[in-house]
Amino acid sequence: MTDRELLGPELNQAGTHAVIVHAASLYRRHFRLFASLVVLPTFAGTFLLALSRIAIFQIRNSLPSDLASQLRAIRTTYIVLEIGAINVAGFLGLWLCWAFAFASVTVAINTILREVEADAEDCFSQVREHPGRFLVTSGYLFFKMLFLSYVVGIVGFLWWTTITDHFELQPHAYVVSSVIVLIIAALTLPFLLALPVATLENRGLVASLKRSFALTEGKSLVMLGLFFETEISAYLFSWILNWLVYRGFTGQGIPIFYGGVFYFQLIVSAFFQPIVMIGFAWIYAMGVQSLQRSEDANDAGLQGSHAI
Question: How much is the pTM?
Answer without folding.
Answer: 0.82
